[in-house]
Amino acid sequence: MRKVFCLVFLFVLWGLFNGSADEVWKAGVAVCDITPPTGLWLAGYAMRDHPAEGAIHPLWVKALALQDAQGKTAVIVSSDILGFTAEMSQRIKQQVKEKTGLDTGDILLNSSHTHSGPIVGDSLIAMYIISEDTEHLDKIQRYTEELERKVVDTIVNAMEHLEPAKLFMGRGVVRFAVNRRNNKEAEIETTYDYKGPVDHSVPILVVKNVIDDTIRSMVFGYACHSTVLSGYQWCGDYPGFAQIYLEQTYPTAKALFVAGCGADINPLPRRTIALAQQYGKELAAAVTRAIEDNLQELPPSLKTSYETVTLPLETPLTKEELQQISDDTKKAEYIRRSARYLLKKLERGIPLRTSYPYPIQVWNMGGFPVIALGGEVVVDYAIAVKQRIEPNAMVLGYSNDLMSYIPSVRVIREGGYEGDTSQLEYEMPAKWKEEIEELILNAIAQMWAKIK
Ligand SMILES: [Zn+2]
User: What pLDDT was estimated at residue 2?
Assistant: First the structure.
């Protein structure tokens, strides 16, 4: 009798830790230091005139793998870089597919868009003064290959460490993000009526250990440029500090920052390490507050989708117009350099773009929508998606491909940097057509309708 009881007890235990695991999430997290050596060029600002001199703190790539009750798996990657190019994403995803079977739509490659990280691939290369310096270009190439290897290994590592877990969503708020098109930076400390749209929400995913409820990982987003710092030391900027503070508060956890639709939003005031630390503390505090106040458990079901939508450009600049820009000494040197870059393409017989295959990724994580868009997406898109789909959605930019700014109809009509002049430095020979907003929003709505 005692033997039978023991057998039943063992069977129940086995059920608890194995059988029941089939009705819960499984999660695995892995991290890898990607701090480049000194001597590499920093990304994001054209005015830098020498390479990196050291690090304020390490740069990281982090991967969170999540598997639902049916065994469907997806991975979110956060990274302290300006952004992945389409080619980098493609290579990384192809290697992950070969090693794990995961499809393009199952891998979300987000970057924090830190402007104190390395140049990778040929991202914005025409903008920098080293755009024709083969020694620097070789270093960038070698670093990029190493980074891609590390991202692949980190994703595989996270998937090899899946354990039963609980998954929660939450929502915090923090208000240091300011619309940079509608407020003057130089007057920011005496501005009392900030103008323009912003998205101050902090969407959060939290992974807890299924047995003791310790926090293993949190993914948190914010829609604001990582541009507090513009110096010569590697740094994750305010998101880097936020991740450090969260990992100090929750020593059992890895914290992953994901960038939202903050293309027209800056952390203001800015330009000191103390401010980057302050905003990091504010963001970490918002995450901690949400963890204590409003976590909502998500059932273990996961659906992913991924599409590319063809976004049309206006009529490209002609050879003569590009030559004019290149010769115009009143224009900034990086703009003239970008024009020359496109001219060289034309000379080599490479036609200029008239459209772009734009990546959109939509996930349903137990009812929680995660929408990841390519490029530097202005905040109007996050607001529109939340109004049309779900107010608590996690809406990300800077995902899978950093091809250009993605302005709304409003911003295209207003013009300026995000609506017009940034196109050239991204090797785009024209403004976007106004219809891109509806093309993107309709695609998201249709994709969500299929998996909700
Ligand atoms: Zn940017």
Answer: 53
pLDDT, tens digit, 9 for 90 and up, residues 53-78: 999 999 999 999 999 999 999 999 99
Q: How far is the CA of 225 from the centre of ligand 1 (A)?
A: 6
Amino acid letter, residue 11: F
Q: What's the first-to-final CA gap in the chain, in angstroms?
A: 50
Backbone angles phi, psi at 437, to 5 degrees: -60, -50
What pTM, to 2 d.p., does this model score? 0.95
Say which residue the tokens 């963001």 belong to.
Answer: 283
- The answer for 271, left when phi > 0, alpha when psi is -120 to 50, beta otherwise, is left
- Residue 42 to residue 80: CA distance in whole angstroms: 12
Residue 14 has pLDDT above 50, yes or no: no
Q: How far apart are CA 78 and CA 416, in angstroms?
A: 30
What's the chain's average pLDDT?
A: 95
Cβ < 5 A residues, ion ligand 1: 376
Q: CA-to-CA distance for 108 and 371, rounded, in angstroms?
A: 10
Ligand 1 centroid distance, CA of 277 (Å): 20
* 263 CA → ligand 1 middle, Å: 6
